[in-house]
């Protein structure tokens, strides 16, 4: 077969988005005789989209040097930009900035051109991620102007995407999402080339997840899945797509499919090029394993997430809570909550913090956390956060003894979770609704709610929740095991949170002598001799 025939076949495969076949044929032709710049650039892109990053960089580097040798400076800059853009998307910012600097040097003395807009736009992304939103916005606006002037649809898409992300980061979510939607219209209609289309998909979906816009995240993730499926050889964006799919499948209750997606994402993102989203893939896998009661496997996944650069909280802390290690979970979450400052970041930690504070008997801290979460939900104003905040608020109200208010709040939360098609969260709220109804003297409705929750947990395979529910339903609400009175159970919860007798007396408005008597009675009834053993008993019997 002649080199000319092989090249024709390579170009046909490239046009059909058969990236691996195109790469192999271009590489075969290149081994026979060096490719011309057009075909060399196609070889580089086919290698990149096949996940062959080393081969891709070598080919683009050759194309860059060949363009410099021919004094085709604009082509040389375009290749430098492609190399730098690919590196930056993978999180390798230092070598990316090196290629952008080289592009700027090559461009010295050239007049107005689209390549200048590209360098401006990529540097604006670095400014945006570094927190310099004002200069980034100005640069993105200039990138849009240059893209229009030179009719560069890729540059227009990347610049508008940057504008939209800046607005979202500043809290102008509605305006920012409108711009991102506009970018995605161009992507889904085929106006944007494959490399930049993939970057746009992943960036926009990540932006939707950041502001908890689940409707958009679902729609664009479905579109990304179709786009990836239409290109079986595509590698770079498939792992990111699987991470997003896993998050949504978990929420929708398709846990078996979510685990499969998480495992595939870990495989795609771990080699031969390690992507910066690998930690998120391991974290999602850990979350699913924790919810299914696979605690040893979950711990290993959280460890790998941490090794890959993803903070394992709040998932690892919730694992410790499920293991009964309340003190560890408490200290970890208190530390984690003191670190993030952005409301969206805090809103990811607060639900676990509230749950842990309630488990430890520290209702006051749980109330503080629930109030802050409610304020964040009111500020961001999306259905998902409103559901999270209402669930936490209802749980705290129930712990405070205000079952009537708790029931109203929990009904709102349940309706929101049903609207979001989130069966696990719905089941957890129904457990709380059942407890509230029991506290209000309605055992029949309580039993109905708890049975409905049990069926959902069984369908999902949520073993730890089923075990906790089994303990809960062995006794009516308000009736403690071991013959403890309601007051003794309350004292046990406060004791378990680490409070001294004096602190418990002050909180309950009783004398220290009375609390000492209660503690003595508790120890006698449940057959323990230390506060640590009493704490363990309380947790094992669902009193804490």
UniProtKB/TrEMBL annotation:
Pfam families: GerE (PF00196), TPR_8 (PF13181). Keywords: DNA-binding, Transcription, Transcription regulation. Transmembrane segments: none annotated. One of its GO terms (biological process) is regulation of DNA-templated transcription. InterPro entries: Sig_transdc_resp-reg_C-effctor, TPR-like_helical_dom_sf, TPR_rpt, Tscrpt_reg_LuxR_C, WH-like_DNA-bd_sf. SMART domains: HTH_LUXR. Residues 477-542 form the HTH luxR-type domain. The keyword Transcription regulation applies. SUPFAM superfamilies: C-terminal effector domain of the bipartite response regulators, TPR-like. PANTHER family: DNA-BINDING TRANSCRIPTIONAL ACTIVATOR DEVR_DOSR (PTHR44688:SF16). This is DNA-binding NarL/FixJ family response regulator. It comes from Kribbella caucasensis.
């Amino acid at each position: 077969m002649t080199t000319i025939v092989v090249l024709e076949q390579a170009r046909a495969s490239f046009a059909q988005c058969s990236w691996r076949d195109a790469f192999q044929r271009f590489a075969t032709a290149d081994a026979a005789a060096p490719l011309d710049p057009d075909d060399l650039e196609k070889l580089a892109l086919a290698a990149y989209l096949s996940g062959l990053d080393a081969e891709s960089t070598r080919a683009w580097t050759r194309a860059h040097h060949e363009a410099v040798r021919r004094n085709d400076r604009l082509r040389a800059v375009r290749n430098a930009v492609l190399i730098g853009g690919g590196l930056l998307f993978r999180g390798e910012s230092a070598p990316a900035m090196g290629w952008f600097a080289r592009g700027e040097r090559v461009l010295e003395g050239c007049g107005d051109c689209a390549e200048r807009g590209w360098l401006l736009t990529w540097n604006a992304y670095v400014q945006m991620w570094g927190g310099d939103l004002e200069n980034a916005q100005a640069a993105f606006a200039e990138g849009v102007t240059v893209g229009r002037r030179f009719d560069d649809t890729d540059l227009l898409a990347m610049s508008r995407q940057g504008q939209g992300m800046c607005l979202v980061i500043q809290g102008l979510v509605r305006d920012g999402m409108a711009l991102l939607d506009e970018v995605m219209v161009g992507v889904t209609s085929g106006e944007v080339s494959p490399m930049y289309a993939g970057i746009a998909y992943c960036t926009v979906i990540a932006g939707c997840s950041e502001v908890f816009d689940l409707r958009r995240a679902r729609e664009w993730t479905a579109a990304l899945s179709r786009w990836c499926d239409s290109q079986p050889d595509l590698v770079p964006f498939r792992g990111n797509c699987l991470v997003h799919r896993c998050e949504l499948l978990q929420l929708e209750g398709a846990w078996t499919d979510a685990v499969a997606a998480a495992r595939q994402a870990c495989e795609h993102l771990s080699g031969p090029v390690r992507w910066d989203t690998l930690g998120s893939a391991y974290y999602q896998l850990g979350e699913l394993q924790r919810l299914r009661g696979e605690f040893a496997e979950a711990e290993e996944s959280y460890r790998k997430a941490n090794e890959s650069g993803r903070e394992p909280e709040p998932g690892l802390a919730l694992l410790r809570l499920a293991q009964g290690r309340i003190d560890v979970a408490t200290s970890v979450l208190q530390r984690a909550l003191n670190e993030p400052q952005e409301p969206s970041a805090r809103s990811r930690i607060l639900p676990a913090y509230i749950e842990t504070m309630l488990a430890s008997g520290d209702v006051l801290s749980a109330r503080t956390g629930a109030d802050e979460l409610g304020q964040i939900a009111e500020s961001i104003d999306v259905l998902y956060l409103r559901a999270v905040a209402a669930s936490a608020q209802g749980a705290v109200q129930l712990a405070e003894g205000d079952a009537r208010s708790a029931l109203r709040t929990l009904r709102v939360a349940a309706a929101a979770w049903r609207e979001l098609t989130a069966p696990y969260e719905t089941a957890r709220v129904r457990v709380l609704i059942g407890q509230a109804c029991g506290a209000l003297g309605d055992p029949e409705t309580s039993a109905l709610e708890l049975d409905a929750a049990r069926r959902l947990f069984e369908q999902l395979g949520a073993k730890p929740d089923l075990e906790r529910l089994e303990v809960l339903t062995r006794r009516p609400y308000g009736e403690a095991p071991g013959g403890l009175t309601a007051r003794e159970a309350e004292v046990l919860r406060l004791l378990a949170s680490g409070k001294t007798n004096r602190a418990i007396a002050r909180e309950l408005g009783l004398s220290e002598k009375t609390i000492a008597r209660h503690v003595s009675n508790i120890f006698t009834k449940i057959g323990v001799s230390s506060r640590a053993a009493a704490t363990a008993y309380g947790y094992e019997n669902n009193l804490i």
